[in-house]
């Protein structure tokens, strides 16, 4: 198991510059910008909201979202049905109160996004166009630009932030670590900024609260649908500050990611589930050469089964046939439909030499989404006073062991609104200067660990896991943690964060000795409600990840729960 202490925090801020803001929002996707916009309204005149983002505003995962945003908006649909589909996909590991908040507040949150300026697709009769994805029993996915939903939402939110001069933005700024007050609460944040004039290099922001909305950890794997910025920075930062990570083992592998060859590496092209929602089917070879569909009989929803079911079925078929991928057959949709409904996917596939109108698309599962993350309550609060988390960086409890398709954009909207509703009443007093020193040792890892780390994680902690593979991964990661960095730059910090979240994920996956949702253990192939209904919570002890299991009743059905009350923990 991991023994070498993981990279620590900067010993002291020693900032080249210091600024102040009431609230710092880390991240500029749907979760971050929604939080910033609503906080600006709720905090009132004179309050300073600062958004820091590692790259451009649109460099995160929101921009890449294809399928859409799920909400019970269609005739005949209801939050109760959306709730049931979410709980079933989550395989007994969701927090039922969080799911209820998501589905009941979701429709209004989407309407608010539309009022803000996001333009969604409409049917010829003028109604919002809704489609279906894996695990949904109703058409409830709203989409924009056919398959460019995230890009449209990102555009609308950036435009809205542009109309709000109260919101200050610092781009190309990696959040390093929290500065904590004597009581362990948030007093500030250190940043490493690249090329922003006066605020270049390492600096500090004094603040009264931090909202983490920094996205996921997909770059711990060699093949992922996540953009390059998804290096687990927010999860690692929160862990170093004393927060708890929950259910990190539940990493979702998207079943249909375009296969570009054995050596392809980094961000890979997603083929949205909505393509199957519109009628595409999985086959184990070209039908004209005897290839067959293989999802029928596996699940009542066949090719539209929940994501984990489809990913496992593809992996099984790949193993049985010895092939490195399966195929998606969407030729019958025709050129006109492809061009109107999936223009982005069509162009991307063609740019890689595959024409989905006339050819099968090679697909294989790849890392897509972290269902776990920084543990929060129903209002985005973490264990660190003054630190909130929302979106993919957080574990609010809505996704359980397997996120239902298109619930992630919705989670960002709903839980960022919730944070903005409680945070103004919970603002911490300004810390007295100087900002406190950090007694823990600083440390980074040697440059160039990233390739080795990704290879280890993909080979041993990917779709299919076993105790032997997880132990080997822990040993290999441990060796990487021992080598000191020569150069302290943004890349080195990212590597340190990747190592932290990869180690934590491996420890969590080792502890959960069962197969549930997206966590697939070859050595424990069954779901074990007697032993593992509940959560894996993980903290850092002396720099080493320490995981513990906390039991919770497993429910795939809606709980008969009281309505969620504002301020409830
Ligand atoms: C997809 O379009 O298949 C991805 C949607 C999601 O991850 O929710």
Keyword list:
alpha/beta, FAD/NAD(P)-binding domain, five-stranded mixed sheet, 569 residues, single chain, 2 domains, Flavocytochrome C3, Chain A, domain 1, five-stranded parallel sheet, 14 helices, binds succinic acid
Summarize the structure.
30% of the residues lie in helices and 19% in strands. The protein is of the alpha/beta class and 569 residues long.
* Cα separation of the termini: 34 Å
What hetero molecules are in the model?
A: succinic acid
Q: According to CATH, what is the topology of the largest domain?
A: FAD/NAD(P)-binding domain
Number of DSSP helices? Answer: 14
Q: Can you name the CATH architecture of the largest domain?
A: 3-Layer(bba) Sandwich
Q: Gyration radius, to the nearest Å? A: 22 Å
Roughly what fraction of the amino acids lie in strands?
15-25%
Helix share bin: 25-40%
How many extended strands? 25
CATH homologous group name of the largest domain: FAD/NAD(P)-binding domain
Low-confidence sequence ranges: 438-442, 561-569
